[in-house]
Specification:
mainly alpha; heme; metal ion binding; signal; metal-binding
Length: 122
């Protein structure tokens, strides 16, 4: 019986860790780097349920707090290239902004063609 328990217990613990580690890593990243966390935004402000498999928020979720897309474009109009006033029209927020941490500039869709743009993405 002891041998069986000693065999099953480590497998059970490993399975639990495998299921929770990505969520824990995201939560740690959010706490350490996220401007939203620094401003007092909690997980449930963007995620409707508290589950690790909860889908990421949509642009609709972002715009509920950050205002209509037009106002965001107005706030960023002084930039050399206004990413919120694109010739492609309104874009999905998550294409440029990371969910829990800043997006790497080279992963921003505009950079595929406009590699001379300099963006500091928050």
């Amino acid at each position: 019986m002891k041998t069986k328990l000693l065999t099953i217990l480590p497998l059970f613990v490993a399975a639990l860790l495998a299921m929770t580690t990505p969520q824990a890593a995201d939560a740690a990243s959010f706490r350490e780097q996220g401007i939203h966390h620094k401003e007092g935004v909690s997980c449930k402000d963007c995620h409707t349920v508290d589950k690790p498999k909860d889908p990421p928020p949509s642009s609709k979720t972002c715009l509920a707090c950050h205002g209509p897309y037009e106002k965001i474009a107005q706030r960023t109009k002084k930039l050399h290239a206004n990413p919120h006033d694109s010739h492609l029209g309104p874009m999905d927020c998550l294409k440029c902004h990371g969910v829990h941490e800043p997006m790497e500039a080279e992963k921003i869709p505009c950079m595929e063609c406009h590699n001379d743009f300099e963006f500091k993405v928050k």
